[in-house]
User: Fold these one by one.
Assistant:
Number 1:
Amino acid sequence: MRSPVLPLTWHLAKSSGRRGLQSQLLAVGAAAVGAFVMLVMIAAMLGSGARADRTAWRTPEPAGHGTAVQALATIFVRHEPVTVVSLAQLPGRAATPAPPGLSSFPKQGEVYVSPALADLLHKLPAKQLADRFPKVTSYGTIGAAGLASPDELVAVVGRAPADSAVSRAADGGATWFDIGQAARAEISGFSGSRASVFTDSDRAAATLGVVLLAMPVVVLSSAAGRLGAARREQRLAALRLAGATPRQILAMTAVEAAAVGAAGALTGALAYVALLPALAQIPYGVGSWYTGQLWVGAAWLTAVVLAVTVLITVSAVSMLRQVAISPLGVAQQADPRRTRLIRLAVFVAVLGYIWTKSGGGQLRNRDLLALLLLFYGAFWLFGPWVVDRLGRVVGRFARRPATLLAARRLSDDPRGSWRTVSGLVLAGFAAGFFSVSTLGTDTAQYQDRVAVVTADAGAARHAATEARTLLHRAGVTATVTVGRSDDYDNLLGGTPGVIARVSGGTQAVDTAATALTPLAKSTPPYSRDYAGARDSTATDRIAEVSIATLALSFAVATASAGLTAAANVLDRRRVYGLLRLAGTPLRVLDRARVRETVVPLVVLAGGTTAMGMYGSSRLNQAFGTTINTTGLLELTACTVLGALAMFAAISGSRPLLRRVTADPAQTAD
């Protein structure tokens, strides 16, 4: 006998009317946003790994019988790193293959530059950058195969084997600042395995973003499965009372939700594919992307589509537990939805376990990830309990009807209210902490200084005299001193050399570094940027991801709040009709809807963000550093714009509220 599930599901979907269609379209939109956001973050994670792999060839890998010498150096211009790879073919050895991005091994005197560096060389005066490289009539071009980003600044210079730039002194190690930024070895190819210091931490930071955004996407997908839940419950409860079995009820709901979820997830996936060129222009780390780096592949694309579809289906089916068990109770709308104190006990127990587990230190990355997911799960369980109590407290002290109605809704449906803001609550702490953090090497004392390393103290005294002459010729006002061997707090870190204290800002520092290049026999002249590069790169990446995660969380929460607000209007039209018949003004109902989101958003999301900022500021204070002002401004702007977007999304359903309550007598029948 043919099952009636599919025909009946199709019939009910068609006959659900305009409001049923609106709920389905809202669910499709929610699924599309969730799939799109998750694909973008996964693309950033995978693309970051691909970019890091493209930089590994620049760090020389020692070979037993090398055919060439490779030296890595790093210079800075306008606070941006420029990676310089010097290559020299050893005489009497086999020919060395071409490095990635070049058609042949560079000859002595040849200079190849990335397209972005070529533009910068033409834009800046020669005394700020070009004079640091050998004089050539024209520059060669490094292809995309040798670059991590179209915006990356990279130069490959052909040298003579006796050139000081590829000598043993160029191996780095003169100061601890050289780690990851300077290296030298005899090589026979370019199969290095150590990524550049400027891309090595990108994937870990992007993975953090994926973890932080996973919960908001789950929330949005769950909300999509619950859109139109009240209308669906009433309809299916009637079928259950008419004789439909629980299995048939669940099957009908699963088929409908899976179809809606798959349509939305596929729409989001197609939007991701169509917007790949635009997404590639968004800078992260060393710059924008090559489009191919952001392609996640068919496997990941399919996995995300299936995951979103399954989440929506499970969410929709889980709402029918009461329909299957007590259809009469659903038909009478008997659902108190209270939370229990056990949620608080579980949350405290999980926090205690995490504290004990992490107290010993030396945790592996997967252990940290597991603890983070455990914390998120506990917070997810704890959140509705907090919203429930918050609603009761607000209701007790409410002085206006709109506030009282909002508080009642928070207590009646704490899970629904929590789902709207949960993603922001969880992402807010990370964004608040990392955006204002300035942990790492404190380089404030190195500002406007340029250092040159010399072989010994005698060479340093001679170099100081030459430095004054070179800086005077370049038009740079500076005070030149010789570094003391017992002073480990200066830019030389106790290494012999000279330090120039420059007046005139960034351009003067770049000009001074260029002017002092002839004095540097191995490590190029360096400034504050070089000294703090290793630490600031990692912290900057995490801060970037935290702000981006908060922004995307706001985008997801905005979609969730807007869609949920519209669906709630449709689901609660009978309640709204009764309130209108009782004389409640429309503006009071509208204010109650807004406050229903504003109260938990301000208290919970705002509270966790403030907690993160406070914790970071205390940690900064302990290490003697100040708050990252730029990060604080970015966080403030993101929070303000995100909150305004959420309120606008909620207000967008105001015309729908006006329409469904236009005839309250008919609506509340």
Number 2:
Amino acid sequence: MGYKVPRFPNADPEELIRRPLQKRLKFLSKEWGEWGFGAARKISVMYLAKLFGAWLIGGALLVTLTSHLNPLDVGSWWTNPIVYQKFVVMTMLLEAIGIAGSWGPLAGKFGPLTGGILFWSRPGTIKLSPYKWVPFTGGSRRTVVDVFLYYGFLFSLSAALFLPGQSAADLPALERFQRFLTDPADGVPSWLSQNAESFLLIQTTPLIFAVIFLVLVGLRDKIIFLAARSEQYLLPVVFFIAFPNLFEVTDMIIALKIFLVTVWVGAGFSKMNRHFSLVIPPMLANTPFWPPRWLKKRTFKDFDNDDLRPGPLAHFFSHVFGTIVELTAPLTMLFVVGTAFGGQTMVTLATLLMVGFCFFIISTFPVAVPLEWNLLFAICAVIFFIGYPNSAGFSAFDMSEPWMPFAVIAIPLFLVIFGSIRPDKVSFLASLRQYGGNWATALWAIHPDAEKKLHRVYRPTKDQIDQIQAMGLPYPLAEAFFEMVLGWRSLHSQARGLFSLLLKEVPDIDHRRIREAEFACNAMIGFNFGEGHFHNEELIAAIQEEAQFEPGELIVAWVESEALWHGYQEYKLIDAALGVVERGRWQVKDAVEEQPWLPNGPIPLTMTWRSPDFNKLQFTATDIVGPDAVPQPLDELVESEAHAEEMAR
């Protein structure tokens, strides 16, 4: 790949997309394993400029200037409570607009680069109600009420962000906090005591309205609720409101420490499964600047001899740098107090290790690109555990009431445990399984003649394949490039079961267009972050209301996350016109031990139910290209590739 021009799959585009599915998967999985998505490096530079230029530098200017602080005097404000409060609020606002995570080409948004607000501010677009039994929350289309609640949420967050903070004169708890910091007997570090009088807290009234609007819009539409990353930011925002007004500012800081550790430990717990080792090779493969190709290939068992199962290096990365570090380092940060176990030096080293952990994730540019979230957590780790040392009265044992630490962890702990036991009831985001490899996900198998029916669905964007063609690529090259995401998906455990299901139950699968559901979902609702519950039968039914597919035209293989150490995953076969037509399960062990392209055929599937309507499915696809994309002669294709390169320049 070059700086301006992407690396296209190293094959004739039309010949590649007409290969049988298994041969195509073998090629695509090896291409991804060595090169990743192949996006031009300027895309990665764009993300870095957005992260460090817009979010970090621009955010620091916004946060300090709106709080009447001197942005150039970093030493005076880096531990000021209002700074990290506003950074949290700002990041939540950007997520809710759709310009933080799940943004840009690496999230399947080629043009426009943003989904989010373009969808959620328009009545008539698809919404997904989490609890249809709650009165006045049903329906599959967004209304004026939903748009009002959404804008109310955005406005409330913006008000909290732009309003100047509360001073000690406004808030007795802040005055007590300042007295604590400036009392020499308390042994508080100089960087806190010297600047304590300038410390401020964010205005809580607009935050109260933001929470109310978010809960109301969330009851009507789980898309916006989860897109705002409520599992990461809602509870801290509640801390910003409750602790300074009802208890102590010190309690708020300690609560944020506990919450930060709970998130990391919960995520580490989610990695204790058979799936996680398979995440590492495709994740590292997408890194544009490091490691070298030979090291990427070494994460597989035997890349050159076509064994693309994770190798010893991948297992080491996953279970040492991943699971063990994410469990032990945060607990060290939280519970080491005084001089025990190396004291603050050990806490600082553990903190820097977790900062490095966040930067490692940033460096891989993971699909859905949650870069701002990782940088925010890195910054908060430094502020909370180095800026506010445990030994200075900011440990988990120093809260003003003994029940407080348990109250802080109650909700996230419940969501992690219950979500692991019943993944069908809790979003994998809320149960902190973002990187654990144990996901609900899906693949779409669509008849080439019928894909244009998706254009009937009201939304502000087109499908990704249309977005790529709008950039100047002819259909065969656009299709070949976009199918790289199938190579990415095939390297994860769930894909072996999903492709097995399609190979077993869809006779014309070699002639169908296969769409990775997370990307396809993005084009329908404006957001996805690996949440398979966004694109289950509920979304397919909402699409069908306008698309009107015939039986067999759009078939979806969908699978739920593995319940805690059950050893199997439960799948559904969904037809857009008929609904769920088959249910069953496969053993996780069979999936993780097979190659991505299933050279031994489909893994064993156990069907537990089949609808009588299954026989209504029609399998008539004969050419993956379809009538809407006439192949071009090779010389014209070369000219089109040259045109694409010229556009990139």
Number 3:
Amino acid sequence: MTTNIKRRDFLRLSAIAALEAGLFSLGVPRSAPATPVQKEGLAYLTAVEQIKYYKQGALSPVDVLKAQIERIQKYNGPLNTSGQELEDPMRFNGKVNAVAYEHFGQAMKAAGESEQRYRAGTARTLEGVTVAVKDENEVRGWRVSMGSLILKDSPLIKENAAIIDMLLSEGAVLHIQTTVPEFYIHTQTWSRLWGVTRNPWNLHYAVGGSSGGSGAALAAGFTTLATGSDMGGSIRIPASLCGLYGFKAPFGRVPTSETTFETLGPLARTFEDMALMQNAVAGPHPKVHAALRPKLDYPLKYESLKGVKIALDYFEDWLPEGIDASVRDSLRNAAEVLRGQGAVVEEVRLGWTNAQIFPVYMNGLLSTGIGAMLLAAEPQQELMTSYARQALKSARNGGPEAMAAADELAAGLHRHLQQEVFGKGCRALLMPTLATPYFPADNDPTKDALTINGKPVKGPGYILTYIWNLLSRYPVVDVPVGVAPNNIPMGMQVVGNTFDDLAAFRVAAGYARTGLRLYHGDLFPDYRDKA
């Protein structure tokens, strides 16, 4: 039967069969119970694993793309192909709902071309690896809706964004656009155009925002890598809630925009995949003025943490209600993992509070193009979500005085941080990403309060990420360090000194070596729906 099949194709087909049977070395013992890796293994292969198999001729990018498309068709739910407002955008249909637009035909052609490049020996860094694109990054011929009914019929994009140029130049395969909250201004992902995006770890709960669709797509095995953007935590919040690694680069490291609060960056299921993608998107680009030179290279492997001094702040002063016990426990356990590698982890207490920082940060943010965008949409505010209308009201508080106050606060926080952490020899600061993992997927911040330690909390005080958008020159890696009783993952922020990305990466890599490893063994999403 095999005499008419090329040897390379025979090996590839045999490898696929072995992967799907759980026979390859994916860290799952033959005697272990069936997991998604064994049942639908190709979709969850890491980028590093895929590239190794592609180079060996044991696997094709077409095979992985097909496996991920099958999962999208099984778990995502129907797309809103009409482009009109959903009749009931908050309705629960038991699906993830992370995909705004699909581009399977275009992606399949690209995957086939990548297969040919591997055969020819001309493969690039991300050759054949699928990347989900947040409904924000412009791709020529695609439409960007910003999650808004106002932009549902926006013109097709004529020119790629810088980050898309960089991904395509490294051989990435772009197959889906992922859902976002309207205008990217909610920490959870739902809109009147795309409905509610739900967490594959527990469909009752949220995926975070604004890169929530990207986070959910990774968790569900719809993609291998994903783009995110971060102007208040929009990479790190989904990374935390979906059990991913995410990187908020310092301003200018990834060519993004001229707004200092904002950066683009990678989301991935493993540290090495995150570093691989960051290498592809870092560096100068002629389309973006604020792009740092020279390009910084990110190793996939890092030296020991022995003797490295690290600060840990549980941020228990952040809210009067404190932080959830499961969040604190996950950080304490993460610190022990790092101590087990020889790091010197010392507790600090900066004493920063949400009440002190958030109003100044938000008024500063809304003094940028974000506020201008909201004000431009004001004539059509009847089409907006409740949270977008609320942000529109806040946008009127922006202006030169608000930006000056934000700059003054940032300078003061920077001095304090240097005195208490980095000036005392610490290479990184560890802190929570969120005060709680209990976010209902359809949370409406204009009326719904969350509960932390039995007390209601309204507003966005439960996020501890936006500090580092105000202090935008600090790099932050989000690392998955626990799973809460509701089966939702929890993340830890690893903050490096200004522009010292590799210090944060070194600590994150150290944790990844021996710490919690999700998407491995039995630790996969199970699509439960329990409050």
Number 4:
Amino acid sequence: MPTAEPSGSISAEAAAPADPAVERPVRPVRSVAERARSVGDAALGVLRTQFTRWDSRRYWLRLLPVVLLLTALTRLPSFFQPIWNPDEGFLATQARMLAAGGVMYETVVDRKPPLAPLLYQGAFALFGDKSLWPLRVLAVLAVAATALLVASIARRRWGNRAGATAAVLCVLASVGLNPEDAQAANFEIFMLPFTAAAMWCADRGRWTSAGIAVAGAFLVKQTGGAVLIPVLFLLWRGTPRGGARHRALLTVLAGFAVPLVATGLLLGVRQSLFWTVTGSGSYASFTGSELHVLGRGLVNTLIFTVGCLGLVIPLVTVVRRKLAHRSVLTPDLWVWLAASGLAVVTGFHFFGHYYLQLLPPLALLGAGALQLLAVDWLRLAVTCSAVTATVFVGWAANTTHPGVEHSQRLAKAVQTRTEPGDRVLFWGMHPEHYWLADRPPASRYLTAGLLTNFSGGRDGPTVGERYGMDGSWPTLLAELRADPPRVIVDDSRGQPYEPARMPRLKRILAGEYERMAVVSGAVVYVRTDAEDRTDAEGRSDAEDRSEGRTEGRADPAGRADREEPREPADRPEPAESGPAAPR
């Protein structure tokens, strides 16, 4: 019976002598010097890796404070203006309505995705809603984050100098617009980091993150979704054919779709689709306002070009000299620029802040072009950008938005005739009136644009009650009947949406309100059953009415605002049938 082999013993096979017919490879004997050299090379490789990591860390530690400081300096004027444009007023008023219990896309509506008003609401919850300075700080961080992401893309492709160049020129060009477009904490400013992050992730093959970033850009503003085009282009160019490409495509689309679907389920799919996609058809048409819109487009294109001269000059030079090597100015950058240009054109409005979407791809193309030129061109580009940025910052620091004083006067006039809880209606295109007056809106429609199709400042013939959004007028009338506003301010000042051209609003003003004053051309109406009040200076409504006639003669619209005989009171209009606004 065989016994077990003792532990540690040598088996018979191992103990058998080697067969001389079988040759075994002879392992070379390494000298001590060779072994030492091998160990040294390994240690040097480790040190080199650690040095590279530290060098990268040191690079960003040096660039980060420069970008933050430069962004803060170029946006410093934004902190000295209470409000820059109606977008800020719209977002601030929406944030207050949400904080008071409003529901997005039901009692708080706009043709925009929900992320920006929710951001405003969060900032107001933390720091109060009396000032926009928290949002201005967030705008500084958004621009800085965009510049750093652009720098990371440029550094990965062309080196350290290109990264720093792209970041600095991106920040300097970000203020190269009319101050009310460049300095405002608006949709485009908070959209930019998401668009840059989408391309940063796609450049590294992180397709899920790229799709999520595209969704974030879309949830700030619909046109932010245009960055999906260059992301898919990078995927097509950088992923092998077959299963790998299909998996990457599904990953991007899933990353893009999941946040949108989750938002729709949270806020209501039908409401979300209506207010962000299907309900914006009239907004994208400029019938009857062609010259007005094209003139604005030409002016803002010229202003943006001047603000980006430090990027445009080297790029044009490289293209003209045919130095645009595909290894540097790669097709994906041109596709990104073209997609951003398409987003600017969409809707045919050409507002100045729309052009900000061009900034990240243009900064990368400019930095890449400087890699193909002599160092002197870099000095020229930085100097040119610094000079133009200084001019635009100086413009912002020494200007006051023309509508701010008017809004403040209207806000004061309303405050003196109402209590903090009284609902008011400003009939106009400036929702900042509500925020400055600190009075709740009497309707979910914060501007006359949604009710009359006077969208984006157009002055064509397609303005009136019948051109408003479906169901908007029945909803407005129901809101006014359920809780009539104490004060209605007609701020149309001769525009095509004035109450004289809106029969239903005209009947309400004639039958239930009394004209009390004219403030900077805007007519203040107070309900006839409301008690008389005096303002903070002790003047009565009658005195304000007298003053209003004097102010009316200086109306910038050129009309002599004077007291007119009241029209006979019409009976209140019965409730209309028809589809109501999405709820």
